[in-house]
Amino acid sequence: MAVDFRGHPLFPRGFNSPTRFEADVYDCEVWGEIPSDIEGTFYRLQCDFAYRPPENEWLPGFNGDGHVSAFRFANGSVDYKGRYVKTDRLMAERRHRRRLWGVYRNYLTDDPLVANVHRGAANTHLYWHGGKLLVLKEDALPYSIDPVTLETYGSWDFHGKWTATSMSAHPKIDPVTGEMIAYGYQARGDLSDDIAVYTVNPAGHITNEVWLKSPYLGIIHDIAITQKYIVIPVIARTTSLERLQSGEPMWVWDGSLPTMVGVLPRDGDASDVRWFQGPARNTLHFLNAMDAGNRILMDLPVSDEERSPSQIKRWTFDMNSRNDRFGEEAVSTANGVLARMDDRYLSLPYRYGFVGNSDPSLPFDEARVGGRRRVTNTYQRYDLMGGPTSTFFVGDTQSLQESGFVPRKGSTEEGDGYVMGVASNYAEMASELHIVDANRMEEGAVAVVKLPFRLRSGTHVNWFSAAELAEQEASA
Amino acid sequence: MAVDFRGHPLFPRGFNSPTRFEADVYDCEVWGEIPSDIEGTFYRLQCDFAYRPPENEWLPGFNGDGHVSAFRFANGSVDYKGRYVKTDRLMAERRHRRRLWGVYRNYLTDDPLVANVHRGAANTHLYWHGGKLLVLKEDALPYSIDPVTLETYGSWDFHGKWTATSMSAHPKIDPVTGEMIAYGYQARGDLSDDIAVYTVNPAGHITNEVWLKSPYLGIIHDIAITQKYIVIPVIARTTSLERLQSGEPMWVWDGSLPTMVGVLPRDGDASDVRWFQGPARNTLHFLNAMDAGNRILMDLPVSDEERSPSQIKRWTFDMNSRNDRFGEEAVSTANGVLARMDDRYLSLPYRYGFVGNSDPSLPFDEARVGGRRRVTNTYQRYDLMGGPTSTFFVGDTQSLQESGFVPRKGSTEEGDGYVMGVASNYAEMASELHIVDANRMEEGAVAVVKLPFRLRSGTHVNWFSAAELAEQEASA
């Protein structure tokens, strides 16, 4: 039975049709000059489709196979490597040469052939920690891959100490202690209301484990950390056994549910968690959080309704207050769904956010049409100290994916470095990596790495310097 | 110094700009159904450019790096693999991350760094013989690569018995004896007028060797064989030391030179060669030859002048004649520069030719514009027994490259099988392999293998059945 994506509503023949190949480019073509103070690897994950998914999907981007792109920088040159994560999920499908997995996170719709196969798709985010490159998908254990060859080693359970059934794709690495704060939800299996929170030391060993109960079965896609607290928002996308039995994908938006935010002291246990509450909010990813006396400030792109414009806002949790409400105020009008920062300042007071935006000359309301985000053709740096917003415009025929911040080698000052991200060049039907000096964004890319093929739009990215990769590998 | 092809006159940003990547596609997307009687591998070679060539090239397609595409068919599925041949030439450039080779076959323009490096580019044609997949370029020894992984083993000298300095890209395999008739020209080094002709037995051992002198320094890109003779045309593209010293590529057309054709008995020695003569003719590749009593009939695409339309003609060599002229008559008006046949009938009387053509509804003269071939958008089967010409039309947005004939598994009748070739789909900016039933070409492709990327236009192709690949490997 031949693979044929024609007629599938999610897969036009265009730029974002499945990539399906693994490739190497030695010494990529580069327009401009790679700055000599960039040394390390830019990793980008993509949710791809080896086989044709079911047609009743609402999250087509999240129900496919993890595909890693690595851009390796050294001495002003870049080599590219793209590989699938060889998950048990993918390899089972390859063996049978057809789709075996059902709709998004609904095990009742899977083919019986994969009833006992690890479902981890490794398609959302990747982190380098404890000498391992972990590729993550929130409903299963992570996969560990080689940071250079991208060869898949297998799933990883932290020396047998990760007792939860899943690990989310958005752990947080504390730049001060080097610890990774990670968690799983539905942590005793699908539909369970358990949350497991782990602290992992820089050598990759679990040093603390706390189990919580979620107020309801909402999505817990991301968390935030400060130096004192772990902030755990539960968002109003919900599910139930009945829903899975109806054959639908796991999640459905329910605006009648509250936003519940658990605040757990980093040195606390389950009895120390405090749940704050607010109206339903549509958000998935959080930019940063920090302590301000006994208050916690948390910045995030969020919208009021399921389909209203996203905006960078600040939530405030007052640990001295007697009530359980959190505060909310706007920080920037950049829509910011691809918000990133200089991760050396994560969990700490910070100044700069780096976000993707559609044409910034449009008034905020017009930057969204029909509830859908327009093409993202700028990266913007906004300044929480009130300085002007800087804008990089990629071009008329390109759209931008999530950026990563790349510190200038040898520099420690916040925001001193590069904003790097992959663009889809529709005119050339090819992907390209844009490298923008974060202090001179208006001047355009200092270098563009031109790939000789198109890559389906990606999910998340991370940069790890050569020094960082070498150092952790030695210590782990 | 970054790789940047911008501004090079030979490399627009379009479809045929350098490929530069190696890739794997597991279980290619297929439109239609792969016939179950196709089992084996379709190999396609491409001249690619890892680094930017000099700008004064007239043969940009031939002065780059060999890049092999393999489409492996089994059980109705196809897997794709693309790899560079890891020639010493390519690896030297990779090491220095820049172009080191000068203009086409002019060693005086090479960088001194590669003065002692094997110059074989392995970019023209490939043959499976004696249990080895040989990748050929006429100015050097061949490379041997793995037929499955495409890994490069190294250059190959036939157990030390290939004493010539080069092997041409167009040996001939005798389907009756399984022997390979192969040769080198400029066979004692660049600009030498020596021709070395070898017979290689099915196990890959040289059994005969004949050295000839070329009448002048013309190109000897291809030969033909019959059951009794080897036909060796010397064509009026010539060269000289003065030309190389001027910094130009090796060849220049000189219409004042004759076409000289050596006819060597397969069991003869140098004293048995007979040279026939005719006016200058522009041709590179020969379709077939056969014995007809004491005459040799040889079919080939050929044009009268350097830039006039190419046409399939028959040259006749009368071994009984006393004069040294050969005859010429037209066989078909298909322009036929990509002419191939059912290779099981090579050197024998045959019926069908398979050629690429531009829109066949155009009068022959209009099928060429300004001396340049128009887009090749059809494959045609012409019938030397006078039957109608069959035509496969690929589509308005595609152009076709050389086809290979794929015998239907288990069948021995001439022409019973498939015509297979890669098309450039400009609308989708992607390459695709079309599989056409040779007996029903008007009905269109029975299957199209859709690659998720574009490949620069290729040079030559060959099909080897799974049985053939297994059998020879065992015997060699």
Q: Topology of this structure?
A:
Two copies of one chain form a homodimer.
Chain A: E1 21-25, E2 29-32, E3 40-48, E4 65-74, E5 77-84, H1 88-96, E6 125-129, E7 132-136, E8 143-145, E9 152-155, E10 172-173, E11 180-185, E12 194-200, E13 206-213, E14 218-219, E15 224-225, E16 229-238, H2 241-245, E17 252-253, E18 259-265, E19 274-278, E20 288-292, E21 295-302, E22 311-318, E23 327-332, E24 352-357, E25 368-369, E26 372-373, E27 378-383, E28 390-393, E29 398-407, E30 417-425, E31 430-437, E32 445-450, E33 461-465, H3 466-475
Antiparallel strand pairs in A: 1-5, 2-32, 3-4, 3-33, 4-5, 6-7, 7-8, 8-9, 10-11, 11-12, 12-13, 14-16, 15-16, 16-17, 16-18, 18-19, 20-21, 21-22, 22-23, 24-27, 25-26, 27-28, 29-30, 30-31, 31-32
Quaternary organisation: homodimer
Number of strands of chain A: 33
Average the pLDDT over all residues of chain A and give the rounded result. 93
Number of helices of chain A: 3
Largest sheet of chain A: 6 strands, antiparallel
* Uncertain ranges of chain A: none
- Gyration radius of chain A (Cα, Å) is 21 Å
Task: Tell me the helix content of chain A.
Answer: under 10%
- The amount of beta strand of chain A, in percent, is 35-45%
**Distance separating the two termini of chain A:** 46 Å
- The SS-based structural class of chain A is mainly beta
Overall shape of chain A: it is globular
Biggest interface in this structure? A-B, 39 and 39 residues
Q: Can I get a quick summary?
A:
Chain A is mainly beta and 476 residues long. The first copy, chain A, contains 3 helices and 33 strands. The longest helix of chain A is centred in the last third of the chain and has 10 residues, at 466-475.
